[in-house]
């Protein structure tokens, strides 16, 4: 079984992925295309309910905020929740054994209309070693192995792996 993912809006009409999918379909391969869309508000509510182990009703205001900030984009929802946790707007209370959130802090966060900007923000907050590893790797190209990265960075295998793991 082969599972692949791509954004149809980002592939030109003659892109090799489009050609491969068309060729498989013409060859009568057992192929199933699933088109994914953004999550609806009820789906975001369900996701948060299952994540935080609370009812959808208890999470209605949080769900509405997350949905309004992400427009239901699944990657944006995940990244937004990660950001909220990193800044302390969402945290786990060990004392009360439940998740808590601060709606005002969440309201003050910018909408994540652009997932790339959200990911860039996360990259900006990486530590120096992870940031250097990403910068160096991007200069090598979109494919590289850790041995080449280690040679270019002039670091040990352990240092390179630690930096990559952080990134």
Structure characterization notes:
The protein has 167 residues and is mostly helical. 56% of the residues lie in helices and 5% in strands. It has 9 helices and 2 strands; from the N terminus they run ααααββααααα. Strand 1 (90-93) and strand 2 (98-101) form a beta hairpin. The chain is flat, with a radius of gyration of 20 Å. 17% of the residues are buried.
Task: Give the helices and strands, then pairings.
Layout: H1 16-26, H2 41-52, H3 60-70, H4 74-86, E1 90-93, E2 98-101, H5 103-107, H6 115-124, H7 128-140, H8 146-153, H9 157-166
| Apparent shape | flat
Output mean pLDDT: 85
What is the structural class? mainly alpha
What is the element string, with H for helices and E for strands?
HHHHEEHHHHH
What gyration radius follows from the Cα positions, in whole Å?
A: 20 Å
Query: In which order are the strands of the major sheet placed?
Result: 1-2
Poorly predicted segments: none
The share of residues in helices is: 55-70%
Tally of helical segments: 9
End-to-end separation: 30 Å
**β-sheet strand percentage:** under 5%
How many strand elements? 2
* Main sheet makeup: 2 strands, antiparallel
Brief overview, please?
The chain has 167 residues and is mainly alpha-helical.
Keyphrases for this structure?
167 residues; mainly alpha; 2 strands
């Amino acid at each position: 079984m082969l599972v692949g993912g791509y954004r149809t809006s980002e592939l030109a009409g003659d892109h090799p992925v489009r050609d491969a999918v068309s060729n498989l379909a013409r060859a009568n391969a057992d192929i199933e295309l699933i088109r994914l869309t953004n999550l609806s508000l009820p789906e975001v509510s369900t996701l948060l309910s299952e994540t935080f182990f609370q009812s959808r009703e208890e999470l209605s205001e949080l769900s509405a905020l997350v949905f309004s900030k992400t427009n239901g984009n699944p990657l944006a929802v995940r990244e937004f929740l990660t950001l909220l946790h990193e800044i302390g707007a969402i945290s786990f209370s060990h004392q009360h054994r439940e998740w808590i959130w601060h709606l005002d802090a969440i309201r003050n966060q910018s909408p994540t209309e652009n997932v790339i900007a959200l990911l860039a923000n996360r990259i900006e907050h990486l530590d120096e070693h992870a940031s250097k590893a990403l910068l160096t790797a991007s200069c090598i190209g979109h494919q590289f192995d850790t041995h080449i990265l280690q040679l270019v960075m002039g670091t040990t295998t352990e240092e390179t792996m630690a930096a990559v793991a952080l990134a």
